Amino acid sequence: MSDFSKFRTAVSGFNRTDVVNYIESTSIEHQKALRKLTDERDKLAAENARLQVELAGLQKRLEQAQADNDALSGQVNALAQEGSDLAEQLKKSEEARQELLIRPAPQPEEPAEPAPQPEEPEESEEPEAAQEPSLTEKELTAYRRAEQTERNAAVRARRIYAQLSNLCEDARTRYMDSGEEIAALAADLSTGLSRLQDAFAEVQVIFDDAQNAFDDMQLPETAAEETAE
What we know:
The chain is mainly α. The chain has a single domain (about 5-100, about 135-225), classed as Helix Hairpins (Orthogonal Bundle), CATH 1.10.287. It has helices at about 5-10, 15-100, 130, 135-215, 220-229. The protein is rod-shaped.
């Protein structure tokens, strides 16, 4: 039998001592429960404040990561444009090299009979062929230049590809780390808020039970008169 039922049946009714004792006992129990829930509420509120501070810090880190990502995107775009230019340069160099490979070699012309010239000293002039490089030498030089340009462009393209890969991997790692931390903190924050709501709900239940208990105490007029005296 509950304390309230014992109180209702004691001495075949109500008296002032029973009422006072019951109120004191109920009040003490409710105060203990209220203190416990208040302590829990304060603890959860402090934990919630701490989580809010951590969340604000993570949000700043996320904003910084987004700013870094924008900067990395600019670098990626610049490197991509440079890679496109190098690809175009490679294409032109390859076309020039292929053109040199398929171009037929110049045929030597048959010399016409020279007109009689007056004899001059041997050291007067050197042959024109010795003064200017032949067409074959020019083509060979152009071919070598195109080949070197192609090699340089290929090396630069590989370097750009490596830089792009590193930038993308760095950005992906930053986003994954920040996302995992924020997800974990959000879960902790949600749990703390849920526990805080439960604590407030229990406090409300205690007050409701106390109110209902006092409402159910319909004291007889004799007890009220005795109390008034």
